Amino acid sequence: MARCAICDKGAHFGIKVSHSHRRSNKMWKSNIKSVRVKVNGASKKMYVCTSCLRSGKVERA
């Protein structure tokens, strides 16, 4: 599973509980995209979450 290169956000795990209260394992995946990013003047491909893209922590190439 991919992780964000900026904030290290990844998948979250927990327990899904149905209406009848039956419990099963669940995985929530973060919205992570493969993006070309400027790093020290050169472009590099990284995995970045969309919240980091929207907040401007990353400059696209």
Automatic annotation (TrEMBL):
One of its GO terms (biological process) is translation. This is Large ribosomal subunit protein bL28. Transmembrane segments: none annotated. NCBIfam families: L28 (TIGR00009). Keywords: Ribonucleoprotein, Ribosomal protein. The lineage of its organism: Bacteria, Bacillati, Bacillota, Clostridia, Lachnospirales. The keyword Ribonucleoprotein applies. It comes from the Bacteria. Belongs to the bacterial ribosomal protein bL28 family. Pfam families: Ribosomal_L28. PANTHER family: 50S RIBOSOMAL PROTEIN L28, LARGE RIBOSOMAL SUBUNIT PROTEIN BL28A. GO terms for cellular component: ribonucleoprotein complex; ribosome. One of its GO terms (molecular function) is structural constituent of ribosome. The keyword Ribosomal protein applies. It comes from Anaerobutyricum soehngenii.
